[in-house]
Amino acid sequence: MAITDADISDALHAYLERYPDEAEQPAEPLRLLARGQGLASRRSFPTHVTVGALLVREDAEILLIEHLAYGITLQPGGHLEPTDATLVEAAVRERIPASPA
Fold first, then answer.
1. Can you spell out the DSSP letters for 53-67?
2. Per-run averaged pLDDT (10 residues), the chain, 101 residues
3. Cβ distance 39 to 79 under 8 Å?
4. Relative orientation angle of helices 87-94 and 5-18, to the nearest 10 degrees
5. 0.90 exceeded by the pTM?
C-alpha cells in the first residue's frame, strides 16, 4: 500500500511530539497535508515529500553522494515510490546510490 498524506502527517506529528520547539518548521507542509495535496507523489508541485538516509560510521564518517541532476553533494535519498509502504522503507530503499551504468 502506498504512502499517504496521513502517513506523512502522522510522522511529522510524532516528530513534533518529541521536538515541540520545532513546530514552526513543518507548519506549511502540515497545512498542505491537511488539505490533501497528495504530497507523496513526485508530480505534486510545488511541494512533495522525499526521503533520505544519514549513514554514520562509528568514527563519525558520513556517507555523502554527488547528486547527478543537481551536481551537489547530499546524503542518499530520493522520491517516494508507489510500492513504498512506509517512509522508513522508502529511506532504506534509497540509502545506497545506484551504480553508474
1. ---B-TT--B--EE-
2. 91 96 93 89 86 90 87 89 90 65 49
3. no
4. 90
5. no
